[in-house]
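Researcher: We plan to redesign the surface later, but first we want a full-length starting point. Tokens attached.
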């Protein structure tokens, strides 16, 4: 994680190859992703009574009461392990 967008993974000379080759994405089937054949690992439950809408001409922003832990529980174990091992890299985000 890097706050400077010019030095973030994928911003270098290798472009997206840096992301594809990153350990966090080990085991990712990129061909299936590009062909839209993967199912979402987590589909949030949207509760209309807890949603807030912010409408403007450009886009619609929707917020719900999804907890980060819900998404964490749906992640592949390899990604969870990577995050735990590299927790200090996420400090401040």
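Model: Full-length starting sequence:
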């Amino acid at each position: 994680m890097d706050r400077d967008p010019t030095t973030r993974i994928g911003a270098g000379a290798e472009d997206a190859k840096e992301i594809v080759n990153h350990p966090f994405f080990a085991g990712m089937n990129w061909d299936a992703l590009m062909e839209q054949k993967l199912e979402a690992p987590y589909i949030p439950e949207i509760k209309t009574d807890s949603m807030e809408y912010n409408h403007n001409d450009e886009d619609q922003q929707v917020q719900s009461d999804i907890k980060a832990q819900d998404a964490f529980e749906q992640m592949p174990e390899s990604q969870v392990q990577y995050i735990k091992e590299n927790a200090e890299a996420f400090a401040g985000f």
